[in-house]
Amino acid sequence: MEEQKKEPTASGENKKGMRLNKNHVIIGLVIILAAAAIGGYIYNLPEKRLARTLKKADALMAEKQYEQASAEYEKAEGIDGTSHEAMEGHILAELYRADELAAQAVDIPDRSEVCDCYGKVMELCDAAAAQQPADESFAAHRADAEAKRTQILQSIAADYQEVKYVTQKDDRSVSVSLADGKDSLFTHYYDLVQIEDEYYPYAEKINAVLRQQMDDYFADPANEQPADMNSVVTASADTAYRDYVGLDGVYTGKGLMCVRLVHVKTAGDIQTNEYCGLTFRLSDGEQVSLDELTGVADLGLMRKVRRTVWSWIEKEGYANILKADIEDYVEDVDDDAYKYWIRDDGTVCLIVDQTMPFFSNRQEILEIPLELGTD
Question: Would you say residue 46 has pLDDT above 50?
Answer without folding.
Answer: yes
